[in-house]
Amino acid sequence: TMSKSALDLLNDLIAELENAVESSTVKETASNKKEAKEKLPVPPKQPKVKAESKKVAAAPTPSDQKEAININAIDLRVGIIRKVTKHETAEKLYCEEIDVGEDAPRAIASGLVPYYSLEQMQDRKLIVVCNLKARNLVGFKSHGMVLCASTVDENGVHRVEFVDPPASAKPGDRIVAEGLVAIEPFSPSKVDKSKAFEVVAPDLKVDHEGVAHWQGYRLVCLTNGGTGAESCIAPTLRNANVA
C-alpha cells in the first residue's frame, strides 16, 4: 500500500482531534443539562382539592311556613242574650248571659249602655267572638265579645250598632267569610299568642249596603247545618268599621 504523506497524516490527526473534541463537548453538554435539571427546585406537590358540591336548600314545606291568619281563624257564632244587667260599678257596661249553642250561656261584658237600653238588649240575636281568652272587666270575667259596627257621623257623634245575623240563624251557627278556605278556629290561647283578632279586625267592615265583609269576602251565616249561607247586616250603618 502507498504510504500516507505527512500532509495526510496531519489531516488525519486533525480529524481525530476534532472528533475527540466534538465527542467531549457532547458529553459535557449532556452532563451539564443533567446537572442543571437536578439542581432545578422541585415544586411542592399540591394537595388535591375535592370539588365542593353545591348544596341546594330544600323548598320549605307547608309546615315550615308561618300559618296565615284570616277571619276564619276567629270563632264567630250566633248568640242570643238570655239575661242582661247593668254592671254594679262601671256605668257603661252591660253584663250579659249569651246562649251560643253550648251547654251553658257565656258571661260577656259589653260597653253598650250608651247605645242600647236594657229592653233592647234582652233576647237580642247577635254575633259573638267565642275564642278570645277570658278577661276581667272591672271585676266581671268576660268570655268573649259581641260584634258591632261603629262610625262617627257628620256631626261628630259616635254611633254603634250590632251586626245582625240572619233571622233564620240559631244559637251556635257559625259565621265565616264566604270564598275563603275553611279552617278550624284557633284555640283561645293561640288567638291570644298570635294576636289573631288584632290582625283581622282592621279589615272587618260593612259596605254601602250594610253587608259585613272581611277583605272583600262576605261574612255569611252557615244555617241549616251548613247548607245555607246568608249575609250578616248592620241595620242602619253604612261604610263602617266592625269590631
Describe the fold and architecture.
Strands 1, 2, 3, 4, 7, 8, 9, 10, 11, 12, 13, 14 and 15 form a 13-stranded antiparallel β-sheet that branches. The termini are far apart. This protein has a single domain, classed as Nucleic acid-binding proteins (OB fold (Dihydrolipoamide Acetyltransferase, E2P), Beta Barrel), CATH 2.40.50. It has 4 helices and 15 strands. The protein is α+β, with helices and mostly antiparallel strands. Helix content is 21%, strand content 28%. The protein is elongated, with a radius of gyration of 47 Å. It holds the Pfam family tRNA_bind. Keywords: RNA-binding, tRNA-binding. This is tRNA-binding domain-containing protein.
Distance between the termini: 140 Å
State Rg.
47 Å
Q: What's the CATH class label? A: Mainly Beta
CATH superfamily: Nucleic acid-binding proteins
Q: What is the CATH-assigned architecture? A: Beta Barrel
Helicity, as a percent range: 10-25%
Classify the fold: give the CATH topology. OB fold (Dihydrolipoamide Acetyltransferase, E2P)
Number of extended strands: 15
